[in-house]
Amino acid sequence: MDSDTNQKYSNQIYTVLNVALLYPKNTKHGLIMRLGHYELDTTIDEYQKLLNDIASDEKTLVYLDTNILAYMYKLHANARKEFYNWVGVLKNKQRIFIPNWAANEYSNRVTTGKLRDYTNGSGSNKNVTPSNANKMYEALYEMAALFVDDSILTKYGHTADRAKYLSDFRDAINQLDKYTKPFNTQFNVGEIHKEIADNFSDIVLESDVSVLCARADSEGPSRFQHRLPPGFEDGGKDENKFGDLIIWFEILEHAASNKASFEKILFITNDEKKDWVYAPTSRVQIVNGHRKSIANKKPQIKIAHPRLTDEFKITIGHDRLTVCTLANLIESLSKQQPTHYTNIAGAIQIDIQTDSIDSSDDEGQLEQEKTQTDDVGGEVIVGVVDNDTAEIGLEEENVEQDELSLHDEDTPFEYLEVALHDSHYSSEAPGEINEIIEQLKSHNWYQQNPAITKVLSVLQHDCDPSAVFVLGRNIYQSACGNSQKATEFIASLNTKLSKLDDEVANHLLTGMVFEIYFDAQGHPRDYTKFDYADTVLSVMTKDRYEGAREYIERKIDDANIRLAFVPGSSGEPKLPITLKTEPQEDRENRYKLTSVVFNDEELLVDDNDGRSPKNYNILEIRDIISNHYSVPTWALDNDSEIKVYGPVLIIPEDKKLSV
Known about the structure:
By secondary structure, this protein is of the alpha/beta class. The chain folds into four domains: 3-120 and 193-362, no CATH class; 123-186, no CATH class; 401-558, no CATH class; 575-657, no CATH class. The strands form six sheets. Strands 12, 13, 14, 16, 17 and 18 form a six-stranded mixed beta sheet that branches.
């Protein structure tokens, strides 16, 4: 499938779940799959966890579509690198491939000089260039020179006269140039093509495409006439109308020959046409601890067409076929290892939001979804972000004193027990803060991002402390799921909090730090949630946040949590990481790592299985230790001769890092 399909895949997941998750009591799975699903007994969160598990399972074969290669031209360099790293891990285990026909579709763009069609300078973003932006601002300047006078400036709060206004306007336009110039070098078509060739050439299947083409020519017309997927939506094309079908034949052929070693198939594609996937009418959402049937919208879960699953099962012998977009793959992987996918997650969210803004059809659909309700199984089904959906918040009934968390007189804050055990936090009370909390709990980027933008505007001086505390927890949770706006909020946390009343800022920060060390039941985490802790813990060292420091210190003491770094401390003296190395005489800039000591513990231990990573750099070792021991990177010191990022540190074959 080439990217010419120009499909919107904003927040879809396409997968066939294990029958035990979908219909645990149903024994007629084959019949249901052939007739299609009306309702999915699964939540978005469960769905994403399953998708992560499938992608991470060493028994899963993964195939990439043409449009995934094409999408590399929409990503900046760091985002591409994160995807290449993920592909590299799977390549080492020989479980990721590109159908030969997908490679053929891509190479056709290369040989006809049409690679630039894949870039952000095409499609809905074809006019978004530094040159065009400059022309637009020049036009605005000319308009201002013609129409703006002193009376208009006074009306809109400008104290300077017209001449000064125009001079400042011109200076602002000139300043933009230094910010837009990097766009011209970020998406170098030739460089990106080289990266694609270097990273993907060795995983292209060696299928005989001439045989597959002949089969598609023979079977395709009949399949399309009877709307047998995939590809019947392309039946009107003059060229490559059987492309989807050929790729499908390749996947079936290769999966069948490898079914003894691989039990699951994952096809990653940004194509969401109806000849590949469909959306069941309803799915499940957890409301007040109960599973409720809601409309399968915003986000919409789509699963493989039942006829595809049926053909797959007949050919392979099982129906463990999963199809997903790159966006949903990254969102699901982000739930487990957010810092591995920060850049690509952010880039994908920006691209999808831009597509949504540019699409008038999407706007009409969104408006329709705001008002539409369906009746399923006797229950009213509402969209996930519909105002009728129950909100997460405080219960309206009076709270008895013994429900409050215990505190001593020196502690300035107290929070409801349901705030500390936020899995029990009620979903009944109205209020803007609680609306935001509910959207952040959706586990969906496209609800979380707009919610984050409202945070500062709703946090007034008289906000309920427990609600603000829970909001802080959920902002941090959203950042750990790589919500773009949440990670931006954390990155500029000090500035954001400076706009709030002191006590409100302390409550919000306390919630964030509490989330690092305590789980949804209010119990100490087995492993701290340390992905974005560097900034949060740095901000907490400031004098303004004494209340937050005192509360967190008391909770950690009460829970008897032993930490190498106490949150709230300044990180001085820094904790040393001691590395011992030996230069590799025959290899420049490479060193044998013979010892790694932290916290008086030797971290280089025997490797019994020989499957652990062997190559690191100094920053990677620092980050591993930071996460494992819950110490901010700014509180660590590199106590070794190697101080720079560049050298490769090689662990001996019989050793591994124990963290």
